[in-house]
Amino acid sequence: IPIKVEMRLQLNIMLEKVEGIEYLFKNLQSVMFPVMWFESVAMLPQDMASSLSMLVMMPSVMVGCGVFSMISGLLIMLSLFLCKINREKLKVKICGEKPRVECDYQIVSPGE
């Protein structure tokens, strides 16, 4: 983001010999004659520049937040899936081959 902008403008007129009035300008060559010069400078205050630079960085930050959210969601889904599989294994270990209606459920730590 440009913080300082300078503009310069020069207006010129092309001077050439004109048929019929050569007696005034006998030795006149074709010349670009400067008529007006204009210069302007504009500066952006530092507090506005920092706000604008933050706006410029915003798309990158949002992409990063989106990627982080997607990875977090996938990790949570994977951990829930693994917990469910582990819980099913513990139920089979406790109940054996009995139907689930007759089975007594107990919490067993993985080391037992």
- Calculate the terminal CA-CA distance, rounded to whole Å: 65 Å
| Structure summary, number of beta strands | 2
Using only CA atoms, what is the Rg?
Answer: 41 Å
Low-confidence stretches: none
Strand adjacency order, main sheet: 1-2
| Secondary-structure element order, N to C | EEH
Q: Output the number of helix runs.
A: 1
Fraction in helix: 40-55%
Strand content: 15-25%
Any idea what the shape is? Answer: rod-shaped
**Main sheet, how many strands, which sense, barrel?**
2 strands, antiparallel
Arithmetic mean of pLDDT = 80
- The computed structural class is alpha+beta
Key traits:
single chain, 112 residues, alpha+beta, two-stranded antiparallel sheet, 1 helix, 2 strands, 22% strand
Structure summarized in a few sentences:
It contains one helix and two strands, in the order ββα. By secondary structure, it is of the alpha+beta class. Strands 1-2 form a two-stranded antiparallel sheet.
Walk me through the structure.
The chain has 112 residues and is an alpha+beta fold. 45% of the residues lie in helices and 22% in strands. It has 1 helix and 2 strands. It has a two-stranded antiparallel sheet with strand order 1-2. The two termini are 65 Å apart. The model has no long low-confidence stretch (mean pLDDT 80).
Question: Topology of this structure?
Answer:
Layout: E1 4-15, E2 31-43, H1 46-95
Antiparallel strand pairs: 1-2
